[in-house]
């Protein structure tokens, strides 16, 4: 992965890892965090003012960086810096591929406004990139994980709901995403700008600063340059702690010419970050409550961003979703790029006019099912055929058999369902024994899938004159349920052996 960093030193301009490596010795000319400033006005930006950050000024009302380049003072706006970064990525991609990149799909957070999308698109065009489409990051993640798409062997439609947990350097974004018949729909989003990988790094910085003071009797908390050196080392240590139970941490000339060399234990790091992990859990619980979903309603957890590699983060998620699949089969910090590449491959075969049309802002308000539609089985149990949040029109086909020997009639009815009340939340008991990594807690009942009960009868039909003398379950009856954009329901039952069929519509 190429870090979103641009730097200047003498007559040279750097991007990515090279720029990041010069941050300690040349912080005033190293630009980071500009992605979250795309499309914003200068007055909307919190301007840092110390020796570890470049100077920021307003240029035409747009945030801009004042740097020294080629022995002269230059002012680059955020869009110009983004162009430099994208141009570097384009060059790296073409070098890797050995051929020209003819188009690309870009991804943005769900909270990006149309203006921010336009600014990003213009920066990409200025960098020489042919923008095929701009999609949302949770959708890119779903594409990368092939979430809810037809099974390569079994095929068939998958109706699922996913929770996309995206923790990058500077924020934690959560999205509830449903897929119905291959169509993705974003149901709810939550966002915390102060809860990202940098927040966890900062806790590690404070740990190292305490250790440095303990070893050298020198307090580095007010030394901005010293803390920057520790922060650079701590970022490397944090990544290593995701793979091992302890990791070295070294920083040269932190303060008064003194170096720091030590080792950080993962457990100690996790205890220091306990409040941050708790905030992650609170945000997850908040979005579930907002979406009116139980934990059992989530079929898959899609991890996005390098910070989601932290073992404690994953174990905390597992505690909330003990029965849900957590997808770790893709590199979490490459998921968005893989999803964009997948989307680019899907639309690459379209005519240029169609691609241009698809990049324009065309909003289609698609009707969705508000409540699930299904059938009622034994013991009045409700079985969902078309889930809620399914875009219309929708169609489902399935088979069933007769329940008794010699049965010559089959009754089929569709009902609207209502979710049963959620169980009351249990009070959490905080434990403060930090001497143990595995806290002994009372076991709670594992959350199950949400249950529904029937409410309104939508349509019913009877298939008569089935072949006589057939044993129970021997006849294959194909049921086709269709719901059009006006919510009108059409049921078709067909006995496959004799070809007898019947059709009914809702009122």
TrEMBL record:
Source organism superkingdom: Eukaryota
- What SUPFAM superfamilies has UniProt attached to this entry? Actin-like ATPase domain, Heat shock protein 70kD (HSP70), peptide-binding domain
Keyword tags: ATP-binding, Nucleotide-binding
- Region (Disordered) residue ranges read 419-450
Q: Does the keyword ATP-binding apply?
A: yes
Q: Biased composition, Acidic residues: where in the chain?
A: 436-445
Report the family membership.
Belongs to the heat shock protein 70 family.
Q: What is this protein called?
A: Hsp70 protein that interacts with Zuo1p
């Amino acid at each position: 992965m190429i870090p979103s960093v641009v730097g200047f030193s003498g007559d040279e301009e750097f991007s990515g890892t090279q720029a990041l490596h010069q941050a300690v010795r040349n912080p005033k000319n190293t630009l980071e965090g500009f992605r979250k400033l795309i499309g914003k006005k200068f007055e909307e930006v919190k301007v840092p003012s110390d020796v570890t950050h470049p100077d920021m000024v307003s240029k035409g009302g747009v945030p801009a960086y004042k740097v020294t380049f080629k022995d002269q003072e230059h002012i680059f706006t955020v869009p110009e810096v983004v162009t430099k970064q994208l141009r570097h990525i384009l060059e790296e991609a073409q070098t890797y591929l050995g051929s020209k990149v003819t188009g690309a799909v870009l991804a943005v957070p769900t909270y990006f406004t149309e203006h921010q999308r336009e600014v990003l698109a213009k920066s990409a065009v200025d960098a020489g990139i042919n923008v095929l489409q701009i999609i949302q990051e949770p959708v890119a993640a779903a594409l990368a994980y092939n979430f809810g798409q037809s099974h390569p062997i079994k095929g068939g439609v998958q109706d699922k709901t996913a929770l996309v947990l995206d923790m990058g350097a500077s924020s934690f974004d959560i999205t509830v995403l449903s897929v119905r018949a291959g169509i993705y729909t974003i149901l709810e989003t939550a966002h915390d700008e102060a809860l990202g990988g940098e927040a966890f790094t900062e806790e590690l910085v404070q740990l190292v600063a305490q250790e440095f003071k303990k070893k050298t009797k020198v307090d580095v908390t007010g030394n901005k340059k010293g803390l920057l050196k520790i922060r650079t080392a701590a970022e490397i240590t944090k990544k290593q702690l995701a793979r091992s139970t302890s990791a070295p941490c070294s920083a040269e000339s932190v303060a008064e010419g003194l170096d720091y060399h030590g080792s950080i234990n993962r457990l100690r790091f996790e205890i220091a970050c306990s409040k941050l992990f708790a905030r992650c859990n609170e945000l997850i619980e908040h979005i579930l409550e907002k979406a009116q979903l139980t934990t059992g309603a989530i079929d898959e957890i899609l991890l996005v961003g390098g910070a989601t590699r932290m073992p404690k983060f994953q174990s905390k998620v597992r505690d909330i979703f003990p029965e849900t699949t957590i997808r770790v089969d893709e590199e979490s910090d490459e998921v968005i790029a893989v999803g964009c590449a997948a989307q680019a491959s899907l639309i690459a075969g379209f005519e240029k006019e169609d691609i241009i049309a698809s990049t324009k802002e065309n909003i289609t308000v698609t009707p969705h099912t508000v409540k699930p539609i299904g059938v009622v089985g034994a013991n009045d149990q409700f079985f969902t055929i078309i889930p809620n949040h399914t875009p219309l029109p929708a169609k489902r086909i399935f088979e069933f058999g007769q329940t008794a020997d010699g049965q010559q009639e089959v009754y089929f009815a569709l009902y609207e369902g209502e979710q049963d009340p959620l169980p009351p939340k249990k009070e959490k008991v905080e434990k403060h024994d930090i001497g143990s990594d595995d806290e002994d807690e009372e076991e709670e009942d594992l959350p199950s899938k949400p249950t529904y009960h029937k409410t309104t009868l939508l349509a019913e039909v009877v298939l008569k004159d089935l072949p006589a003398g057939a044993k129970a379950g021997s006849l294959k009856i194909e049921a086709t349920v269709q719901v059009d954009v006006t919510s009108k329901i059409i049921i078709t039952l067909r006995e496959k052996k004799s070809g007898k069929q019947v059709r009914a519509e809702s009122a």
